[in-house]
Protein: WYL domain-containing protein
Organism: Streptomyces himastatinicus ATCC 53653
Amino acid sequence: MPQPLTYLIDDVARKHGHLRIGAASAYLRCDDETLLAEILADRRSAGLRLRRLAPTVLAAQAPPDALLEGLRAMGYAPAAESAEGDVLITRAEAQRTPPRTPPAPVPDGPPVPDTTLLGAAVRAIRAGDLAATAPHKPPATTAASGTAEAAIGDRLPRTTSADTLATVQAAALTGSPVWIGYVNADGAASQRVIAPVRVEGGYVTAYDHTADEIRTYPLHRITGVAELADEPG
C-alpha cells in the first residue's frame, strides 16, 4: 500500500468518532459530582435510565416531567430549567368555579288557573261571604257575670268556655250550623260557619262551610260561638 494512502487512513481513523450523537429525553446536571454519583448508583433510579455524559451531567431516557417526579420520589428537590438555563417556576392551576347554568325563563304573569282551582276559589269566596253576612243570634247571657258580649258586624263572637261547649254540643245534636270565632296556631283570627258533627276530647269535628270540608277544631281556640238566626219565611 502506498505510504501516502496509509497516512490518509491513519488520519481519518484518528478523527473518526470524536463527536458522538445519541438520543436523550432529558438531562440532569449538578456541580456536585458526588451527588450525581449517588443518584446514579441508587437502584431506584434504574427506571430513569441515567447515563453519565460528563462529571457534572447525566442523561436520562425518561421525559423531563417523569425525571422530576422520579427524583422527588427518591427524596431530592430538583428544579426544571429552560433551554436557556433559567429555572422554571410552575404555578398551581387556578381553581375556577364551573359556569353556572342560567335559570329557566319565567313566563310573564301568573299561571292560568285550572277549573279545580277556580272552583275552590269560588267556594271559598261564597263561604267567606256566608260567614261574614249570615244573621246570628246574640250569645246567651253567662251565669257568672250576667252579661254577654254580642258579635257586632265583623267582630268575632266572644263567649265563655262553658257557653261555647254547650252551644256546640247542642248544635251537634240538632245538626244546626253555628257562627264561630277561631284563632289558629299562628294567632290569625277568622270567623267561620260550621255544622258540628261530634264534640269530644276537647275538639269539635264539623263541616266547615268556609273551607267546604270536614275539619276538627280545638275548643280552646274558639273565641266564641253564636247560633245563626232563622231567616224570615
